[in-house]
Amino acid sequence: MTIQWCGVDDYHAMCREATEHIVAAIERAADSSRPAILGLATGNTMIGVYEELAARLNNRGGDLSQLHTFNLDEYVGDNGHCVPDNHPLAYRAYMQRYFFSLLAPKLKMNPDHIHFPDPEAPQAYDHLIERMGGLDFQLLGLGFNGHVAFNEPMPATEISAEAFAALPSRVIDLAEQTIQTNSQLTAGGDSSQVPRRAVTMGMKSLLAARELLLLTCFAEQKEPLERIRQGTITPSLPGSYLLGHPNATIVYAQDSVNLEEA
Description:
- The structure is a single chain.
- The chain is α/β, with parallel strands linked by helices.
- The protein has a single domain (4-253), classed as 3-Layer(aba) Sandwich (Rossmann fold).
- Helix content is 32%, strand content 16%.
- It contains 8 helices and 10 strands.
- The protein has helices at 11-31, 44-60, 91-98, 122-131, 161-165, 176-186, 203-207, 222-229; strands spanning 4-8, 37-40, 68-71, 73-76, 114-115, 137-140, 170-173, 197-200, 212-216, 248-253.
- A 7-stranded parallel sheet has the order 1-10-9-6-2-3-5, with helices on one face. A 3-stranded antiparallel sheet has the order 4-8-7, with no helix packed on it.
- Strand 2, helix 2 (44-60) and strand 3 (68-71) form a beta-alpha-beta unit.
- It is globular.
- The chain starts with a strand and ends in a 9-residue tail after the last strand.
């Protein structure tokens, strides 16, 4: 099955489209009388998404006490541990600031159900996701170099397409382009603030999600998106792995990402 391409007018329309997908995933789980298992992402792309989503959930009401969230990644400090919550780029703090703190108390979101990978036992993350039945939904951004989560591109001469798809959650060294991009987008241009390593959900758990939704709203994402549209799955372009997924959608904000008709 091919990727569903969804061009929307602008960033705000992208946020609304993402919210529709996420709320639908939550409601499908509720209809099946089981907890929703959501994979979440961070970055500038997602800030408006979480604002829109929190508002929708607050207005919708209901009970989120059984909802579990699994974030894609977290930065790792020089000591081998996740960066502390007071680190300016910590993703735990990001999620609290931009999403969880916006949820009304009446929704009963359980803090113990908010999960992040642990650099000291990264593959335990995969085991937990598997024990819970896998991810119902995975929200994704796209790195300017084509990465998803922090699964950085690798030459096809170094790893087969199949082996890349099977990569587990793990600690990785960030690519220089990723460091510089994140410096400009989240650290005011100060690359010294950006940790050089991160712990990331692996491709195996990510691709096993029942639904993938990738959001793009930067002009720099046009190049990797055009490469994805060429139709070849390759470890040199991790985003291309959505091509092999049975239920994947790419949403692009047309005022920023000027693609031809997809």
